[in-house]
Model the fold of this input.
Amino acid sequence: DVKVTQSSRYLVKRTGEKVFLECVQDMDHENMFWYRQDPGLGLRLIYFSYDVKMKEKGDIPEGYSVSREKKERFSLILESASTNQTSMYLCASSSLGQTYEQYFGPGTRLTVT
Amino acid sequence: AQSVTQLDSQVPVFEEAPVELRCNYSSSVSVYLFWYVQYPNQGLQLLLKYLSGSTLVESINGFEAEFNKSQTSFHLRKPSVHISDTAEYFCAVSDKGVGAQKLVFGQGTRLTINP
Done:
């Protein structure tokens, strides 16, 4: 079974802090994604990566950056956390050229105070 | 640009009753369509998908969805729901071709099953 793990289930940070959210997948998938999930808005794509060191902006990249130094790991960085970044963050991975199925991690609920 | 609209944010039904969760999409190109389910305190998991061929697709736990190109819809149905179907359901669309790895999700529909 594909497994996507995220470093924390719950995280509380203060405004202005630098925040790292880590995601690791164990199926050698080429593609990795970061979404945020908010009630009534569904999932919105922040960034995605289709290869090591490659990244593309999604629909809401402002205030975020990403890093993919190894194929299995994709990090989301909040350079200076703000209260409007309080949300559920979901990581996903998929295999290039397959059936477009994305496999999701359990999510990190981030609260910025 | 693609978009997905799930017409109902919440759907309460009684156990063993039928249910339909509605999904409409807009896209200027051919698409793949998906339904994902999120059980409480879990990540999303794929429920079913339409890539090509038969427009009626089924899941292993009794859900089905029909791709209707003329109405740009992909509604999800189950003839008899169970308490364990309580979850949030997301419809998603992806363009065929270049950039097809990305999914655009709808707002989600929370399905609540009452005994």
In short: Chain B touches chain A at residues 4, 6, 9, 32, 34, 36, 41-46, 49, 51, 90, 94, 100-108 (CB under 8 Å).
